[in-house]
Amino acid sequence: MKKIFIADDHNIVREGLKLMFHTSRYEVIGEEENGELAFQKIMKNKPDVAILDLNMPGLDGIELTKRIKEYMQEIKVIILTIHTEEKFLIDAMMSGADGFVLKTISRTELFEGIESVLNGQKFIDPQLMQRAFFNVISGEWTKDSLLTVRELEILKLMAMGKTNKEISSELYLGSDTVKEYVTNIMKKLDCKNRTEAVATAIRKKIIF
């Protein structure tokens, strides 16, 4: 029996997944709505697969994935999200996630994905695979699609006129870390300053 851990800040999602995994093949050994607390429980319970929401308080799914993989590479991680933008998929895969699926995925496809990652393969939601392939061949997958979840979060705060110090305080990040994120954002958007980066992001509809 394979052990499953569920981290999602929506109770109805966790309850639905627990019902789905009520089989002879899987056992849900834990759940949590907070990313930081989820990490602690995952380290303690050592599931075979951790299914993580992308957006959670404490630690988001990307940061939680990085931390899990840093300490226990053998735990398989699947990101389960409503976000369909390729930038989130890329960010998840770069963080070490083994799978990335949408919350609209069917039960059969989710089980297929779990078995795939347990066998050492990567699994991406079929809907996203089709869209990503189209965007690549049509030339629409550009470098601004590579902004990470955290970079997008900081970019939105920049657009609100927040200073690095204010962003640091709001996101509980070190000032040097925020400065590095801002530098990376400007580099990826090929901009020379914060104002230009925000203007470019709005023009390209990276943020709204």
Automatic annotation (TrEMBL):
Residue ranges occupied by any HTH luxR-type domain in the UniProt entry: 140-205
InterPro entries: CheY-like_superfamily, NreC/VraR/RcsB-like_REC, Sig_transdc_resp-reg_C-effctor, Sig_transdc_resp-reg_receiver, Tscrpt_reg_LuxR_C, WalR-like
PROSITE patterns (alphabetical): HTH_LUXR_1, HTH_LUXR_2, RESPONSE_REGULATORY
Chief subcellular location: cytoplasm
Compartmental location: Cytoplasm
Domain Response regulatory: start-end pairs: 3-118
Annotated SMART domains: HTH_LUXR, REC
Lineage of origin: Bacteria, Bacillati, Bacillota, Bacilli, Bacillales
Protein's UniProt name: Response regulator
Species name: Cytobacillus mangrovibacter
Modified residues (4-aspartylphosphate): D53
Transmembrane segments: none
Key words of the record: DNA-binding, Phosphoprotein, Transcription, Transcription regulation
